[in-house]
Amino acid sequence: MDSASGAVASDPNRGEGPSAAGSSAPAADPSSSPAPPSRYESQKRRDWNTFLQYLRNHKPPLTLARCSGAHVIEFLKYLDQFGKTKVHITGCPYFGHPNPPAPCACPLKQAWGSLDALIGRLRAAYEENGGRPESNPFGARAVRIYLREVREGQAKARGIPYEKKKRKRPTTTVTATTVVASASQGGDAGGGSGSGGGDGSGSGGASASAQTTATTTSTAV
Ligand SMILES: [Zn+2]
């Protein structure tokens, strides 16, 4: 009976260890520094700075306030030079091939998915930095249209669809409804008591709930 019960077992939840990966609970971290920004947040900040830098270097000079959807598109095209996605031109023998057997001279561009995600981050950053949603150039219709064109163009050029669309087949849907009508019992289940159901609202105050959390029960009688 060597019961060293409890005494030694200090709580194991000390904030050490590399575990607790996925837990979404905010682990109130007592160690000085605030939580580092998430990957998305830091990426967003980086993108925003890149864009501001782009504006600064723009010729003719361009301020954020004067920035339109057309400028955003210009920015996206500018970024293509840093892209890593091969987009075949129509004259390339590998146009439409997902896995070309040999290299070709077609340009590298930004993949549509990257641009789409980038625009989403910049759009958020714009408003977080005081921009009004109505004038958000990243949400401009022209930008959306441009992105769609890029997506469709790249899907064709690379032979990789970005979206699986449901194709409508030409009407051959044979709905085999085998109605098992054997032993027809007369009882039509659908029928009775269609009305009613009107009341029953309210009044259900004391529904058997064992919750003791409800603090504000302001029953105004
Ligand atoms: Zn090519």
TrEMBL record:
GO terms for molecular function: DNA binding. GO terms for cellular component: nucleus. InterPro entries: ALOG (IPR040222), ALOG_dom (IPR006936). Its main location: nucleus. Residues 1-44, 158-221 are annotated as: Disordered. It comes from the Eukaryota. Residues 18-32, 171-186, 206-221 have a biased composition (Low complexity). Residues 187-205 have a biased composition (Gly residues). Keywords: Developmental protein, DNA-binding, Nucleus, Transcription, Transcription regulation. Coiled coil: none annotated. GO terms for biological process: mRNA transcription; response to light stimulus. Residues 39-166 form the ALOG domain. It is found in: Nucleus. PANTHER family: PROTEIN G1-LIKE2 (PTHR31165), PROTEIN LIGHT-DEPENDENT SHORT HYPOCOTYLS 6 (PTHR31165:SF59). Belongs to the plant homeotic and developmental regulators ALOG protein family. This is ALOG domain-containing protein. It comes from Fagus sylvatica (Beechnut).
